[in-house]
Each structure stands twice: as C-alpha cells, then as structure tokens.
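## retry 2 of 3
previous attempt timed out at serialization; input unchanged, resubmitting
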Amino acid sequence: MADNKINIRKLEADLWESADLLRAGSKLTSSQYCMPVLALLFLRYAYSRFKMVEAELLKNRPSRGGRVMPVEPSDFAAKSALYLPREAQFDYLVNLPDNQPLGEAVNHAMTLVEEQSEQLTGILPKSYTMFSDELLHELLRIFNNKTLDEIGGDVIGRIYEYFLSKFAKAVASDDGVFFTPKSLVKMLVNVLEPKQGVMLDPACGSGGMFVQTGDFVNAGGMNANTQMTFYGQEKVEYNAQLCLMNMAVHGLNGRIISGDEANSFYHDAHNLAGKCDYVMANPPFNVDKVKSESASAAGRLPFGLPGVNAKTKEIGNANYLWISYFYAYLNDHGRAGFVMASSATDSANKDRDIREKLVLTGDVDVMVSVGNNFFYTLSLPCSLWFFDKAKRLENKNRVLFIDARNYYTVVDRTLNEWSEWQLKNLQAIVHLYRGETEKYRQLVAEYNDALDGRTLQQCEEELVAIKQAAKDAVANAVRKEKKRVEREQNESIAEAEAMLETARQREWLTSKFGLNGEYRDVPGLCKIATLSEIEEKNYSLTPGAYVGVAEVEDDGIDFHERMNEIHAELASLNKEANLLMSEIMKEWETLNSK
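## retry succeeded, writing output
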C-alpha cells in the first residue's frame, strides 16, 4: 500500500513535468493541453495492460508446426483488454528512428486504437503534429517508466483530478466538477454489490464508478461486459472523452452521451427511468439556477420539485433533484448509491418534505457520514446515501446509520482515505445489518490468514524488534553498503507496520461485533433506526443524530481527586511565581539606586 502511494505520487510529479513542457512548447490553454498528455498516458497504460494480457495468453497458446499461434484481437476482448496493433504500441513510438515524424506517428497510433474500439471513435486527440518532435520524445520518455505497470484501478481519473488540482481549482470548485476518490467509489460499490443488470451514472465524469463496478464483478469470477450494461450521461464533453478512454483501457463497453442532451436536469438521455438495477453517482453539489419548468417537464420527480424561486422560476439548490432522479431510475428491485453534500441530510422546507416521502417508501437503506479531506481539491465533508427497493423484510422500515467521520487513514496533510481493511470493516457492518453473518466470518478468517496467527500485541512487539534490528544493521554496515542495507531494513519496517495496522483493524472490528458477528448499535459509530425514530427527528437522515457519541474509556483516574491535585499544583506554581517576581523587583530597584 505504501509503495503504491509512492508510485502514484511520482507519476503525478512526472505528469506535472510533462504539463510544464507542453505549456512551454505550445500556445495551448490548460484545458487544451491536458487532453494530449492524458491520451499519451492512456496509450501507455493500455500498452502495459496489453503486454500483461499477451503474456497470459501466450502461456497456454496452441502451436502448429512448432510455431506458437499468434494472439488475436478477440482474445484480448475476452480478457477485458484493448488490443493494440504494432504501430500503436508504446515501445514502437519510443524507439521510432529520428528521421521519422513522431507527431504523425502518434496521430496514426491514436487512429489505430480508435479502430479497435467503437466507443473511442472520434474521441482520441490527433493534434500531435503541432508539437515539435523533441517535445514529444520528452513526453514519451516521461511516460516510459515502470510505475505505470504497477498501478491499477482508475488511474486516468486520478490523474485527471491531479490536473484539476494544479491548473483548475477555481473551475473545479465553481462548477462542482471534481473527481470521486477511489475509496468513496469502492464504498459505494461494496454496499451495492453489483452482480448483473443495467447500471447508470447520470453524472459520470471520468468513469470511476464504471471502472470499480467492473473490477468488483470481475473479482467475483464473472465478466463485467457480459453481466453489466453501462450507461452514462456527462454534460462536459471533455470529461466524457476521459470516461470513454478510462473504460476502454479497462476493457469495458459503455454507452456514454455527452453535451447538452446529457444534462440530467433536463434529459433522461437513455430513457432509463424505472429500468435500472443499479445507479451510482457523485453529482455536483448545491447547483443553483436550474429552470424549474424544464426540470418538471423532464420528469423523474416522484416526490415533486424542490423549492422554486417564484420570481425567477429557478430551483435554488438542485441536491434533491439528483436524489429524486436516483430513486426514479430504479426498477422494482434496484439499488442506488451516491455521494451527496452533508447539508442535504437535514435541509429544511421543500427538501424536508421530499425527504419525508422518500423515507416513508421504506427504501432508504444505509446512510454514511464521511469526514473532511476525502476529495483532492475540496476539504468539505459529505455523506453517502444508499437506496434498496428490495430490502429484506426485517429491514423494510429500518435504516442503518454509520458515522465514519472519525474513521479513516491519513495520506498526507490535506488528504484522507479509507484503507482496504477499513473499507472491508465498514462493509462488514452492512453485512451484519443485512443478516449476512457468513460474510462477516469470512472477513475474520481473511484477517487471520493475513496475520498468520499473530495477535495485536505480537505485532506490536515484532515491530519494536524489527526497528531495533534495522537500527543495528545500518549502524554496523560498511559505508558502501549503508544505503542498500537501509533500504532493505526500511522495507522490513514497512511490512511490519502494515501487519500491525492489519491487526489494529481486526481489533477495531471484532471488539465491537465479536468473532462470530453479532450486530449491535455502537455509540458514535452505527445504529439501526426505525421509521418512527426517524419521524421523531423530523425526518433527518444525519447519522450523527442517531448514533450519538462514542463511549469514553475509563482511564482509572478519579476526576475529583485529580482536579484537587491540579489546583494544589497550580497554587504552588503561583506562589513560586510571586516569589520570583518579588526577587526580580528587588534586583531591579537595586540596579536603579546605583
């Protein structure tokens, strides 16, 4: 985990370098020069995935006449990978002779890639002849590193967000356009547990919801392209291009509509109302000036319009438009999971009326509060909402509230996330709420396998011993071996720290719900509330209003006794201070009299 973070950070730094090169060597605006760089990154990552799948295919490839049969494009499609003709492979471009125009070669590579994927037609940039060959060679060099072979997941979306944070913070904040961090997307997917059917993201951005859903389905031993049908709407065409690239590099097929007809406030572009098995989204928060008459005519408002300004006929805050859409898109057994501004859980007036109607359907399933600093460009908290129109009977009139604002891993000063174990722990609470105790026990068994029988105390002791051994090894190493020894010892320490963190997360989970998994409300963390309890709180869906405050552990110190000790200590210090001040004044008077 730590190494992966380091690799991503290095990759981002390299991209910043490449952006600087483009800015110095061209007259493009930031929005224009981002796309050529991202397309080169896309090509590099596609090449990395291509080589990995090719190696897998060649292992068991049949031979004829002593010659191994060549791989075919259809072989890669079956592995959810993009086939790359030779002239579109990254190493071909890197090693192109100096006497061949590199810009034309890159343009041709992009054309060849588009021919392999119908959904990429017309998407990839072919404007590389505007750059000098020297500049392109430098860009290819930047991307020709092993880091890209080691990083999986929604890499294009992550890098897209890095560019937003560097060049367009104001745009990202004003337009509400910001990348959804992977840990939030994974939480949405983990709770929804998609298996098969129609999935829609009506604010799909760079496509992270599709990528993580594909990973989840594939990890379950199924093929995402045969099990799922992906639909997306994205008003910003630039973002839609990134989404299509992102899906293609992960071997996913999707139907993405962009432009004005993809504005979800006014269009159900795929005609999917009432037809979706899954809806996932991170819509822009707190959008204003939505035309109420147009929004009303577009439908998908089972609970009516939010508050409308009678003078301007505009909706002042569109959060509850989005919430209504997500519900309206679901079929009779559909599930929805989405990110929303924290303020929406208890906003007043028309929002409150819509929320009451929503709660009374019995389909609100899980509510999760998320703390600050989970987004790369914004520090605001948020909440995760989950609907389920096919809840088990016992939960039909109940909602699980989880307050996870104090449960996270610090990445750096401005960024928090949920680690893989933390995501599994939060998912385990949902499993218990749903009566799926076997899944909880499987997680405990997974912990035990990872720890190989170690207890928390043993992990703590091992780390102390490894740190001391590392210190001794470095101290005793000869000068020319010091750096190598120090690197090796740091790797050992990192492994021991990861093991300790795993033990801590197991302790966090089992101390609350036991080894066998028995759900109970945990003050400050989770509570299952009935509809009548929610009614008593004026239909608020804020987890903190239900879970209360965590219990404070008894440290064994008598409060009154300790306060008396503090007062006595303070009185003694004051007396000493007065004596010192008296001595200082006497010395001062003596000096003045001379």
